[in-house]
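LOG
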Amino acid sequence: MSWEISGKYVGNCTCSLICPCPVDGVPTGPDGQCRGLNVFHIATGAMDETDLSGVDFAFFNWFPTHLAAGGWKVGAVVDDGASDAQVDALERILRGQAGGPFGDLAALYGEWLGLERAGVSFSDGETPSGSVAGRVVVTFEPLPGPDGGVTTVKNAMFGFAPEFRIGKGPGHPERFGMEFDGVYGETSDFTFASEMAEGAPKGRG
């Protein structure tokens, strides 16, 4: 099967600024672990004949230690406006069953927490935000750069994009037995596909 999705995402986690997970460092959350959430808006995408354009979803993660050690717990929430076919396609993608970057990451999953349906929305702009079940769970606040721009991370070992903006990520996600206050935040455009270009970054939850 062939698939590709592109759009924008915003996320937060419990790590102190700046989150070490993209460079495979030990999480700096209050318990030495990383609990996080990323909300994605698919601008364009499809799996075979199933159009995924316009679908929003949230991807929850629980990293017990540095990412390469595995044992991740992950789960997803797909917007309840998505069709059954769209939900099925996204579950196969996110569980790694359809190959691509999530297929690579599935080897690090310790437990798939499931897929749920609820209202999920993404709001774009200078301070992107994401909502799950009608409640804002992440708002991105960029860290300013010296030239008036924003601070970025580029070419990280684990990342949803080759370069992404970093900052604060206040919000209080609660799902899959996880409840936490967001500290670190990030946002960027993304493109994932069953066949990625050579040297493309690995995604993270």
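LOG (cont.) second protein
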Amino acid sequence: MSRHMYFHREIDDLKKTILKLGTLVEDRLRRACSILETRNEDQAQALITADWEIDDMEIRVEEECLKILALHQPVARDLRLIVMIIKINNELERIADIAVNIAKRVVTINKCSPPGSVFLLDYQPMAAKVLEMIKASLDALVTEDAALARQIFLMDDEVNRLRDAAYTAVIAEIGRHGDNAACLVNIYLIARHLERIGDRAMNIAEEIIYLVEGEIVRSSEDPQ
């Protein structure tokens, strides 16, 4: 097999691996959103203890990218592809970490809330929108669709609006029940976690646009 053919086979394998990681991360996020609804601590603990699987795959992807860079020294679009995969790999691992943080936050809230109580906030609209953003970012990655990637920026406006509404509701509740402030802050932080996942989806979208168009794009929010 020629060096050129070997290089492109490695690239194809790398694409498959990053898409597999994306599928796993999307599944973790769906499970975290389900836990927000059920508040099931067994499901939360299962999600928390499975985090190592994502971490291991993230390391494998990074190592493979570095090996390809060292052996083949790609240029132009091939180089942009490797750079994109390295960055998206990191974003996906962080999304999985935030999903774990959501599960941990639910466990904490269960401990500080009266048995049978309901959350102050309905997270489902925000969770659904964030899941839509992650799915769109992965679809744009598969199809290398810059137009779809740009739509993710618009979806984020709704996520930010819901985060702001959560903040307003929690602040008002703290004013009425200051003795439960610590628990209420944890309730708000779930909205903050979901908002950060939306920011990660935008980061992925930016990298896809960079791959397809060779243009560095940054959203107005400059997510971290």
